[in-house]
Amino acid sequence: MNNDDVVRITLHKSALGGMQANRPKNLQRALAYQAEDEGPEAERLADEADFQHALRASHSTDQLVELWRKQLTQWDYAEGPAWSHTDPRTDQRRSEVFDLLGLREETRQLLSSLVPVPHASGDVVISDDFTPWYTPQSQQGRSWYWPAYRRLLEDKGWPETAVAALDTASDHVVERLANPTDEAAYQSKGLVVGYVQSGKTANFTGVIAKAVDAGYRLVIVLGGTLNLLRAQTQRRLDMELVGRENILRGAAEYESDYADDPAWSQGKFLSHKGLPSTLGAFDIVRMTTRDNDYKSLLQGIVALEFEKREPALPLHHPQNLHRSSARLMVVKKNKTVLTKLVQDLNKIKTPLSEIPVLIIDDESDEASVNTANLSKPDSERTAINQKISELLHMLPRAQYVGYTATPFANVFVDPGDTEDIFPKDFIVSLPRPDGYMGVQDFHDLDSVIPYAERTFANSNEKAHVRDVVLADDEDDTALQKAMDMFVLSAAMKLYREENGLGHRYFQHHTMLIHESVRTLAHRELLGRVTKLWWDAGYTGAAGHERLRKLFETDLLPVSLERADGHAVPDTYDDLARHIGAAAMRIGGDDQPIIVVNGDKDIETGEADFDKRSIWKILIGGQKLARGFTVEGLTVTYYRRRTNNASTLMQMGRWFGFRNGYRDLVRLYLGREETMGAKEVDLYEAFEAICRDEETFRGELKQYAELVDGRPQVTPAQVPPLVSQHLSWLPPASRNKMFNAQLVKKRSPGQWEEPTAYPENAPALRHNTGLWLPVLESLSSTPTDFAYTYSDASHRFSALTGRLTADEFLSLVRSLMWGAPSQFAPHLGYLEEICGTAHPAVDDWIVLAPQHATGNKRVTIGTSSRSFSWFARERRRGPLFGAIRDPKHTSAAYRIAGALPESGDAATEGYVAERRGAVVLYPIVEPRYRDEAAGSGAIDPSKLVMAFSFVAPASAHGRDGKAVVFTTINSSDAPIITRTEN
Fold first, then answer.
1. Which residue of 207, 267, 293, 420 has the smallest Cβ count within 10 Å?
2. DSSP H or E run through 868
3. Cα–Cα distances in Å, from 859 out to 112, 234, 766, 863, 867?
4. Cβ-Cβ contacts under 8 Å for 181 (sequence gap 6 or more)
5. Which one, of 747, 902, 774, lies nearest residue 840 by Cα?
């Protein structure tokens, strides 16, 4: 870097620094102004022509570009700034920034090529109305812990876009808390929904930092139900928020409770460069440490007393609040611990009504939710819920924010129970982070590629998932193969360290075996796995032969397609010399396996990822099932069964960030596991969870948009948006599922698929009779439909017909259902767009897809025509699982105006304004399939006439709202359990 480069960077840094707290300003004038202080050399570089010249010669990682990347990203992500009316993270926002900077077209193009517009989706907020108070102006001069945390994340190498996204998402939480300086007390309750092992802790660390800066003076973090989870959260907050000086408080370095932590001696804990209170800020006083949960009177009641500079004024008055230290405690969800805390708070002299409190509930759907039926006589809340309720009652200025990746139990809490933790004020759904490996990355959801044509390149399942199907309980074939893959992937990591990633890049390399929560089962499994390890012969001829075969048939072909630029050896011989080193790294201490079924395994440091590098096989159950991060997890062998989606989702320790080894991740999953009297496929179960989760997030996103400045839905109306895709896998435990009633669901341009068809013969005959004239009126020859995407094509043949808006509405009004409430919200919408004086629909195109080959054709009743039928099964009572075939969806979307032009003349011929699409699926259930296939005919009482529809994309409701509810709430009506046959 020459002298001109140094001067230019200094000049641009000063110019942009003057804009940080305000809007973008004319760059030419800002450079000229700053150059006056920098001297003649700077004046020569203070124009846009020099900036263009520098950008032409720059790479994306150069200092000048990084400087501009940081500032442009902040402007790109700014939510509702006074200087812009455009949406964040859009080309329009970036263009407006360039306009305010007064940049020429060439400069704009150069900057945009080096710093592309981040079109990432932001967090989704469902919120009740709130009074804005958390503004840049209100925080001016008071921020200390948030800027320090932001700098730490930047120093750790977080991309500026990730930091900006965290800034925005944490703002959305803090601004919905009560203003800590208000005279009137208000208690806000909210929920933040993330993904399993995806960075929720980073979000609530940011929220805590901003909250204490704003004036919250007691922060209580409920850190899970286990010591190891509490300690993990305490360390993270101490390292990244509290800082060295607040931890030591004048003590010697060796006296720190982190003296044995490598990160402490390596300088990875945040430093404030002095005790914050001596630098014009305020201290954070820890009430708990890594090794000690909250203990009554351990540090004296005086430690909980809050100092007041103006005794005549309440603590929450600004003259007291911003001069007082904050208290932080990370406590386990344990009745004894929380009882001690409640007792000590009742003993302090500071009036509890004056203390602004923030309660962060990590894994808020575990233990915190009340599962007792309070409507029954003499019923009491469950223990942890009772203690949280007591805290909220005794601390009227307490704000409650729950964090979870499995929110269903929380949104099913009774909104009318004011002492419970229902998120009445807001629900924030965090976006999926870049680089995150989640459920979707192990499944091929809605793939149009036939199963026989799927490869390691186009199928997530083929790349990462391996079936566990055992001959008997003694069959360890799949377990041995999983262990072989663990050793093979360990060698691959060593190979990559040697070929580009550097020495000790992979601090941890782990395999998780999860078959049971029972300690006795873990002991038995330890014996089996130990024997398999020592009999494997990884450095002998037999071991190398097994590994060579696994390398050539599995690891190599996957990595060639998915290594993302990381080193891949050409042959097994190129990797073989690392096998011995890998086996030694895992088992060289004669302990290749760690059993984690008690806190002692963490307390002794044996499975503490913070204290040492771990390359081991872990056997565990509940202790490793929720919240605890298994670092370096590469191979999972999973056969544990459970009976609800939330619990199963939390078992997914294989989700997370897999930098440098994403292609090596393998999931060995039970496909024929016995659970009670039934046999379950765990891969199918995780796919169902994925669909439940994505449906929920998609619904939240749709309804988050304000209408006339007002929320479409409030958190109290969210429960009906939760779905269930497998009969045996409800979203949460049954005793947590409070519900509301959905009256109308508007869905312009969306595929809607009713599934609650009747089971009795008269109702089936009635429905078939309604549809039969429509089938008879369809075209005599099928039309070939096509829709081509960049990487795939949807093609199928279908008979076609047309129904007027009145005809379709009249038909669906007359249909009979197995669970009428399921279709009722859709019918309400169809009445609105088809049955009014000014309908939003002219007509509906009817598509009846036809199979190209095979014998799945039947005549129906007395009809002379035959039609293709489809094999589908009911999953829960009258409810079918997915009915659609993904390749049928695109043409229907296009006809309804929900997709751009297809490029296919036949498909385009059916497209029209104000037109919807109906897709028919005559279903033959399992007990009638042999009859249908053999005779080619079926009685109308044995046929399920299923259909899906896509309303015109333009068919919005009159008031613009997407849903209309009536809420069943214990505050105004009894909770009713509805059983529909």
1. 267
2. strand 866-868
3. 61, 68, 17, 6, 6
4. 215, 316, 317, 318, 321
5. 747
